[in-house]
Amino acid sequence: MSYARTPLAGMRVRKDASDVALEQFHVQLCSDIMQLTDHDGQELPGFLDKRMHPGDDWEGRLKQALATCRVFVPIYNSRYFRREWCGKEWDAFARRQQLRTRPYTGNAIIPVLWVGEQHLTLPTVAAKVQYAHPDLGKDYLQSGLYGLKQAGRHAKYRSSVWALAQMIVKVAQQTSLEPCDVELFSDLRNVFEGE
């Protein structure tokens, strides 16, 4: 999962509501994926860097996750396309997809609208990736997952998370993206820059 952190205002100790919602979404999505697969559960089926411990090699762990994940899930909000590392993560996964050796039936990037599409200006590279899907519905497009959750539309939120989990599992099975060497990521660039 690739996302932009919500900046802390001053020295607040309390987490921002959107960060809490993101962690809850990650847990629910992983739980749904576990129900749809035979994943062994020794580790969560999805990577979120908020789960790293103090002293961990953040960049190394992130690159390792990008080198081995089967699906790239960017969390779209306006901040996402302004963060250097988000653009570098996209570049890493795009490079990996270009190296594919097995028959390939599609793109393994599944964007998630965190806010409604009207709040987004997509850079060219992101505009090429479909984010709308009939199973997600117009409420998802108008509000995004965070908007649905904040508005108390829990049934719409849950059905959207379930639909996303199904898409992620289907894409992972269809694309069968193989891991790569992290050396492929030695000179990552921000693919959102200059747009």
Attribute tags:
globular; 44% helix; mainly alpha; 195 residues
Describe the structure.
- By secondary structure, the chain is mainly alpha-helical.
- It is 44% helix and 2% strand.
- A two-stranded parallel ribbon has the order 1-2.
- The longest helix is centred in the last third of the chain and has 22 residues, at 154-175.
Q: Quick recap of the structure?
A:
The chain is mostly helical. Helix content is 44%, strand content 2%.
Mean pLDDT, to the nearest integer, reads 88
The run of helices and strands is: HHEHEHHH
Strand order within the widest beta sheet: 1-2
DSSP E strands, number:
2
Low-confidence segments, given as residue ranges, are none
Strand content: under 5%
Shape: globular
With helices defined by DSSP (H or I, 4 residues minimum), what is the helix count?
6
Determine the N-to-C terminus distance.
23 Å
Q: Considering DSSP H and I runs of 4 or more, what fraction of the residues is helical?
A: 40-55%
Q: Note the main sheet.
A: 2 strands, parallel
State the secondary-structure class. mainly alpha
Rg calculated over all Cα atoms: 16 Å
